[in-house]
Amino acid sequence: MSSSLQIGKLGEQIALDYLTSKGLHIIDRNFRAKYGEIDLIIKKDKKIIFVEVKTRVGDQKGKPYEAVTRNKYSHLKLAAELYVLKNKLKEYKLSVHVVSIVLTPDLKVEKIDHFEDVLL
Length: 120
Known about the structure:
The chain is of the alpha+beta class. It contains two helices and five strands, in the order αβββαββ. The relative contact order is 0.21.
């Protein structure tokens, strides 16, 4: 079985492929701040979208999106605010999306859920 890190990286690539197929453009990935990491940062028109990707093999331990708790969201929001300040993006609207991916035991995509404009 693959490690959590490998599954996470696979999930990020699947999410990236999924989002770019929808016409969204990646501007950064794996932005790290002391508050946490932002998996993907994408741009659409005058909107910057911060994407949290959660990936699991099967859903025996719950749906991947259930791991985005208030605490996780709070850290993501702080990291996003830092990203905006560092990159002088104040003129953009901001949004948080969650991409939840369930893989089969042989690491094929079973299900992708994309939640837009998430507020907790």
